[in-house]
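Hi R.,

Here's the chain you asked about this morning:
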Amino acid sequence: MRIIIFGTGYKYQKNKHYFKNMDVLCFLDNDTRKQGTVKDGLNIYPVDKILQLTYDYVCIVSDSHVVMKEQLQ
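And here is the predicted structure, written out as tokens:
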């Protein structure tokens, strides 16, 4: 199962242990300062990059999940 994590902030930091044994491909983040960087060994991309990726699930890890879900749709 190939997963993309949307969100790299506090919620992710608090819950990242849940993703330890999963096949996480990369992160998505709306913060342009984080895009193009690496966190926990994974690239951080803007949301529109998702159209170029092959994945099974996107895990939204943020309190702003409603807005983020709309961006993905």
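One quick note: The mean pLDDT is 93.

Cheers,
M.
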